[in-house]
C-alpha cells in the first residue's frame, strides 16, 4: 500500500538581518513550532554571531545548522514555492495570502517551500519580492502595522504547525492520573463525611447513591495533586470551628490518607 510522502517543512530565510539577537529570537520561534532549517542572506554582522545564542534560549540546533548565502536567489534555489512576507506589494503583482492560507498551500503541494523575511528596518526590497511566487501579508492594525522580525516568523511558523500535528502537552499529560488507592481514599473520605449527615438515606437508595458519587469522583481523571487538594478541602470541612481567641493550635495541612 503506497502512501503520499508528507511535504517537507518550509525553510525560513532571513534576508540581510541586522542584529544577532533577532536571528536568535527567530530561531527560537522556529523551533517552538517544529521548524529547524534557517537560511541567512548576507547578515549585516556576519555569521556566526555571538549575540544570537543567548537570544535563541536553547534553540541551538537551529543556529548550528543555519546556512549563509550571498543572494536570496541562491538561498531559495532548491525551493519550488517561495513566499515573501511584506506589508505591501511594492509594485509587484503577486497573489496575496495570509499566513494561514500560505501554510495550507505548503501542506498541500509537493516540493520545498520557503518563507522569506526582510531586514528589520526596511523589509524586503522590490527585487527580493520579485523572486517570490506569492506574498504573505498579516492582517494587522492599520494604525500600528509594526511587527518585529521574530513576531513575523512566529506567525508563519505557528500557522504552518497547525497542519503538522504538533501537540502541546496538557496538564493531565504532564501529571499522570492518580493511582486507584488514592482515589479510594478520597471516596472513602467523602462517604465518611456524608454518612453521619444522613446523605445516604433512605437505606434502599444508599447503594445507588454511593455508586453515583463514585462515578462523579472518578470521571475527571484526577491527578495526585488534585486528589491531595480535594482531600485537604474535605479535612478542612471536617474540623470543628473553634471560637476566636481560644488559644487553640491553628489547623495544620492535612496528611494524605
From TrEMBL:
<keyword id="KW-0808">Transferase</keyword>
<dbReference type="GO" id="GO:0005829">
    <property type="term" value="C:cytosol"/>
</dbReference>
<dbReference type="InterPro" id="IPR029026">
    <property type="entry name" value="tRNA_m1G_MTases_N"/>
</dbReference>
<comment type="similarity">
    <text>Belongs to the class IV-like SAM-binding methyltransferase superfamily. RNA methyltransferase TrmH family.</text>
</comment>
<keyword id="KW-0949">S-adenosyl-L-methionine</keyword>
<dbReference type="InterPro" id="IPR001537">
    <property type="entry name" value="SpoU_MeTrfase"/>
</dbReference>
<dbReference type="InterPro" id="IPR029028">
    <property type="entry name" value="Alpha/beta_knot_MTases"/>
</dbReference>
<feature type="domain" description="tRNA/rRNA methyltransferase SpoU type">
    <location>
        <begin position="11"/>
        <end position="158"/>
    </location>
</feature>
<dbReference type="GO" id="GO:0008173">
    <property type="term" value="F:RNA methyltransferase activity"/>
</dbReference>
<dbReference type="GO" id="GO:0003723">
    <property type="term" value="F:RNA binding"/>
</dbReference>
<protein>
    <submittedName>
        <fullName>RNA methyltransferase</fullName>
    </submittedName>
</protein>
<dbReference type="InterPro" id="IPR004384">
    <property type="entry name" value="RNA_MeTrfase_TrmJ/LasT"/>
</dbReference>
<dbReference type="GO" id="GO:0002128">
    <property type="term" value="P:tRNA nucleoside ribose methylation"/>
</dbReference>
<keyword id="KW-0489">Methyltransferase</keyword>
<dbReference type="Pfam" id="PF00588">
    <property type="entry name" value="SpoU_methylase"/>
</dbReference>
